[in-house]
Amino acid sequence: MNIESILGELVTLFIMALALGMDAFSVGLGMGLIKLRMRQIFYIGITIGVFHIWMPLVGMLIGRLLSDTFGTIATLLGGTLLILLGIQMIFASFKKDDEPLITPVGFGLIVFALSVSLDSFSVGLSLGIYGAKTFLTVMMFGVVSMVLTWIGLLVGKRVQNWLGAYSEALGGSILLAFGLKLLFPF
């Protein structure tokens, strides 16, 4: 392989990683609108980054064996999870207590990370069919998604201070809209 083809492949993978990471940014922006400490923001970014490594890796391995049927199922599941989380956040914003029903801690963090990484599973299936370089691909997806999640969370945290009580409803609306976009591409 010559340097131009390697560079071209790196640029292509980086663009794909950015495209996949934008959902992590969007969800991070929505999650950042609830009160989070910096330590939570750090762990959320790491967790979503790990899921963006693990999910396409599994997808690539399965994609080498199967067709892309599971990609559609993964997208539908991810969209449905984001819609449910968005609705939950919107309803929680109208309750009198400050504690949301699902928070990005423990099981809630796993649900958030899974919902935004299911589309990377679908991409992994496709890349597995075409025989992409596994290690480079999944590491780029993970690192870019982690960084974009942190950026989204930090921007959301900053905006949350300006919006006050309405910030959680806005965050839920972002998750809801992104879930609908996954289910009904327009």
Features of this protein?
mainly alpha, 186 residues, globular, 6 helices
- Total strand count, please? 0
Low-confidence stretches: none
Radius of gyration equals 17 Å
- Termini separation comes to 38 Å
Total separate domains: 1
- Binned, the helix content reads over 70%
Query: Which structural category do the helix and sheet elements fall into?
Result: mainly alpha
The run of helices and strands is HHHHHH
Tally of alpha and pi helices: 6
Main beta sheet: strand number and arrangement?
none
**Share in β-strands:** under 5%
Write the layout of secondary structure elements.
Layout (H helix, E strand, L loop, with lengths): L2 H30 L5 H26 L5 H26 L12 H24 L3 H30 L3 H17 L3
Describe the fold and architecture.
It is a single chain. This protein is mainly α. It has one domain. 82% of the residues lie in helices and 0% in strands. The protein contains six helices and no strands. It has helices at 3-32, 38-63, 69-94, 107-130, 134-163, 167-183. The longest helix is centred in the first third of the chain and has 30 residues, at 3-32. The protein is globular and about 55 Å long. The chain crosses the membrane at residues 12-34, 41-63, 69-94, 106-129, 135-156, 163-184. It is a multi-pass membrane protein. It holds the Pfam family Mntp.
